[in-house]
Amino acid sequence: MNHTTLQIFQTVAEEQSVTKAAKRLGRVQSNITTRIRQLEEELGVTLFVRDSKKMTLSAEGASFLSYAQKILSLAEEARQALHPAKPAGTLNVGAMEATAASRLMPILQQFHRHYPDVALTLKTMPTGQLLAGVRNATLDCALVSLPPNASGEPTCPTDIECVNVFTERLVLLTPHQMTAGGEAKIRFAAFPKGCSYRARGEALLNSLSEGDKTVEVQEVGSYHSMIACVASGGYRCLLPESVAATLTLPQESQLQFVDDALTQLVWRKGYASPALGEMQKILAMASNL
């Protein structure tokens, strides 16, 4: 087992295909297949369940992947630490869809302009999934909105380091002439579970229903889909005001301010790299706090 073999294993796991992994890594398929079989023989387990269309991780493969990701991340961290004056290597960034849509473009452009030797990747997903990515080392850092505690303040998990970056004004978008009393149920368009804004929206609508109505959630994959649901006349959605300003909203729909929400930059406790350090500085300059 070596660094290259772990990279090959991780890529096949991500692509679920030897063909796609070979193309991504610039290797021949036979080499990828041989490396995976050698790794399985060395570990004494079957890492993938193979069928005619794709390769999916076995239970043992999923367990091993988490270790492989941490080993590769630690190796990259060590490599970057040897050259602290010149950020290089990779920086895997995660962000909520809202942050990517309304905040990140100038930040990423500035980072790339100053540090072109850093291969920066961006993945968007809800806060819960982003925190999991930071913990399992598939992400080096992420922009999330941590759930507030009983006093209304976000609580940083003990295995995560975090710093506040942005304040977002959350607004509830409601179709024209929708009334709370005229609905058999309250319909809410939102991202999948794990989204902190979804949790806030559900809590708000449950409080408005006064216990006599259920909140039915329509899961969507984008803010454009949320707006389309509202345009249909039967749904509400919760989104940052900064995102709403970038979208074409349904005619005569209503925006109601709900609450402020903090966005935090988070990373694994103890993790550091020159690239992450420079990203932290750029975000600090862009902060609206």
The counted number of beta strands is 10
User: Biggest sheet, in brief?
Assistant: 8 strands, mixed
Poorly predicted sequence stretches spanning 5 or more consecutive residues:
none
The CA-CA distance between the termini, in Å, is 47 Å
Gross morphology is globular
Based on secondary structure, the structural category is alpha/beta
Question: Order of strands across the widest beta sheet?
Answer: 4-3-5-10-6-9-7-8
What CATH calls the topology of the largest domain is: D-Maltodextrin-Binding Protein, domain 2
Can you say what the CATH homologous superfamily of the largest domain is? Periplasmic binding protein-like II
Radius of gyration: 22 Å
Strand content: 15-25%
CATH class of the largest domain: Alpha Beta
- Count of helices? 11
In the CATH classification, which architecture of the largest domain applies?
3-Layer(aba) Sandwich
Number of domains: 3
Q: What string, H for helix and E for strand, traces the elements in order?
A: HHHEEHEHHEHEEEHEHEHEH
* Helical fraction: 40-55%
Question: Please, what is the average pLDDT?
Answer: 90
What does this protein structure show overall?
It comes from Cedecea davisae DSM 4568. The chain is an alpha/beta fold and about 290 residues long. It has helices at about 5-15, 20-25, 30-45, 60-80, 95-100, 105-115, 125-135, 195-210, 225-230, 240-245, 275-285, and strands at about 50, 55, 90-95, 120-125, 140-145, 160-175, 185-190, 215-220, 235-240, 255-270. It has eleven helices and ten strands. The strands form two sheets. An eight-stranded mixed sheet has the order 4-3-5-10-6-9-7-8, sandwiched between helices. Strand 1 (about 50) and strand 2 (about 55) form a beta hairpin. The model has no long low-confidence stretch (mean pLDDT about 90).
